[in-house]
Amino acid sequence: MHSSALTVLAYCASLASARGWSTIEINDGQWSEVIERDVCVIGGGASGTHAAVSLLDSNKSVVIVERNDHLGGHTRTYLDTATGIPIDIGVVIFHPVPVVFDFFSKFDVPLINMSAVVANEPGQPANFSLPANLYSIFQVNSDFRDGSPVTPDVPSGQAEAIERLAEAMAQYPYLLEGYDLPDPVPEDLYMPFGAFIEKYNATAAFPLVYQISQGMGDLLNVATIYAIKYFNLKDLQYISSGYYTEARGNNSLLYARASQYIGAENMLLESSIVSTNRKNTTHGQLELLVSTRDEGLKLLQCGQVLLTIPPTLNNLRGWDLTPEELSVFTQYITANGYWTGLVKNVGMNQTISNVNSAATTPFNIPVLPALYQLTPVGVLDDVWWAKFAANNPTLTKEEAKSYAERQIATLQKANDIPVTQPEWLEFESHTPFHLQVTFEAIKDGFFRNLTALQGGLDGKMFYSGAAFHTHHSTLLWQFNQDVVIPQMMGTA
Ligand SMILES: Cc1cc2nc3c(=O)[nH]c(=O)nc-3n(C[C@@H](O)[C@@H](O)[C@H](O)COP(=O)(O)OP(=O)(O)OC[C@H]3O[C@@H](n4cnc5c(N)ncnc54)[C@H](O)[C@@H]3O)c2cc1C
Ligand SMILES: *[C@@H]1O[C@H](CO)[C@@H](O)[C@H](O)[C@H]1NC(C)=O
Ligand SMILES: *[C@@H]1O[C@H](CO)[C@@H](O)[C@H](O)[C@H]1NC(C)=O
Ligand SMILES: *[C@@H]1O[C@H](CO)[C@@H](O)[C@H](O)[C@H]1NC(C)=O
Ligand SMILES: *[C@@H]1O[C@H](CO)[C@@H](O)[C@H](O)[C@H]1NC(C)=O
Ligand SMILES: *[C@@H]1O[C@H](CO)[C@@H](O)[C@H](O)[C@H]1NC(C)=O
Ligand SMILES: *[C@@H]1O[C@H](CO)[C@@H](O)[C@H](O)[C@H]1NC(C)=O
Ligand SMILES: *[C@@H]1O[C@H](CO)[C@@H](O)[C@H](O)[C@H]1NC(C)=O
Ligand SMILES: *[C@@H]1O[C@H](CO)[C@@H](O)[C@H](O)[C@H]1NC(C)=O
After folding, report:
1. pLDDT tens digit string along 427-442?
2. Does the pTM of the predicted model rise above 0.85?
3. Ligand 2 atom closest to Cα of residue 57
4. Which residues contact 90 (CB under 8 A, 6 or more apart)?
5. Is the CB of 134 under 6 A from ligand 4?
6. Which superkingdom is the protein from (predicted)?
7. Which CATH class name applies to 77-151+244-248+334-434?
8. What CATH number was assigned to the domain covering residues 158-241?
């Protein structure tokens, strides 16, 4: 990857835009190829991949620009080469809804109903014909700061509280499809989630919500709109009746097959945008200058652009942002920190999932930054999932990793077993996760302004992805299908 070349280009881009020049003009003729497509999709994760496939199926020509060397975004599968066993360490679960069944079956990727299969009994060996995520184990809570055991308070009336939470959420059904909010924005949506569950006498549901809402940082203090979009009405519906996952526990297979379908000629991998010229172009097409892995610069000429990457200013360097885009994208004040890994040589009891809790915090939530849990995968000897989180995105990947190692040592000492040097098979940064604006901005119409960006630049600029909806594959595909693609096709 030409990272230094990229840095120089990004620098030139910012310098050029400061002077009112376009980097595209400066580089005129320097590109190795001009690629013309109906739609250029930026980011090949959950939303970008799904959208590209849908657009191809509507006979649109597409190209995806993706920073990584593969599609899939937060989907990550470790493959144990010795046994062929796959282990998902990113996205795991999907809802049993048509958009999911359609997308998987299009690529002949089998799904299973996670509630309908026979897993092992806790304490017994894993069922090797099932995905690793179905390994069933005992749970032991302790405080990972010192290894002391914690007995979490079990709230009474949990079932009733969940019902009340569902009723409260049901007032806002439109949250299942983007951020098309009424004016004025209901106060419920911008109060802290902790206040919301108190208002609706649903605090006893919080431990469940927290457990499912990994990556949401300080969940009691995030705006309710974020909390109830991430763990939403549909989750409440399917949590008991069954989520779905890839039959072997290899969700990456979906993206590998989708890549074949989209075609190498329609994907620019290890590539990123260095400059754009969208406002006043000769043929009315939007021009994007891309730095590619092997072939230097390429110029994309796009009938429409679908942006699916996190729209931070850092990610949008070199873009000729409109005043409307700028006023929206400058408002992200924070994000969460979230890292997941797979670690070997831990030596602890492999029938127990170690869950981080604290004796004196509300709902016994762990004190972050910290591992949420250290859980054996069951299907590989002495291999563990490590999920690490922070309330902000400031830790580096290396800092998060060494923090996690110190906590593993603390657990080993507390369990009277030798402190080992853990061996990381994977350690993935999912940071910055979940971009957020202030409660005030939500109240003052931030999401109305965000939604109003759709169809900007004379019906040529569109947006999808977590920032325009929520971090949830199923819901993002539904949003593409029901909202974004129809808008792009002019059939909304
Ligand atoms: C650990 C973890 C577990 C999860 N588990 C589940 C789950 O079980 N079920 C579920 O439904 N959801 C789950 N999620 C949420 C996940 O589905 C969403 O986060 C989803 O991936 C968001 O899709 P997206 O298209 O917005 O972004 P992404 O999938 O992140 O896609 C964005 C893509 O853009 C690329 N990119 C970023 N910046 C640039 C740039 N400047 N230039 C070019 N490319 C760029 C990225 O590499 C990425 O491929 C999980 C998330 C995490 C982190
Ligand atoms: C796409 O084109 C094919 C072949 O021309 C045609 O059969 C099909 O109906 C078209 N699909 C759509 C959605 O327009
Ligand atoms: C999944 O399995 C559970 C348990 O058998 C069942 O109740 C549920 O209906 C199944 N889901 C679907 C979509 O078939
Ligand atoms: C393991 O899972 C498979 C597939 O669901 C099932 O057929 C089998 O009965 C399970 N084995 C045991 C021992 O429960
Ligand atoms: C609040 O919830 C608790 C526990 O579920 C229940 O016992 C109590 O009656 C509820 N109070 C009101 C006012 O609904
Ligand atoms: C999982 O999918 C990947 C494609 O990403 C493939 O290379 C790998 O062989 C698959 N593994 C198994 C065990 O199915
Ligand atoms: C747009 O292009 C036209 C013709 O090329 C030019 O005259 C005009 O100044 C341009 N407008 C802006 C805002 O750059
Ligand atoms: C592992 O933990 C289980 C559950 O507490 C216990 O029954 C078992 O004896 C433990 N195994 C070892 C080797 O300590
Ligand atoms: C949304 O846009 C309106 C109109 O431009 C503006 O008055 C308002 O301040 C904006 N709100 C936010 C939070 O940006």
Report:
1. 999 999 999 999 999 9
2. yes
3. 13
4. 72, 74, 75, 76, 77, 251, 340, 428, 430
5. no
6. Eukaryota
7. alpha beta
8. 1.10.405.20
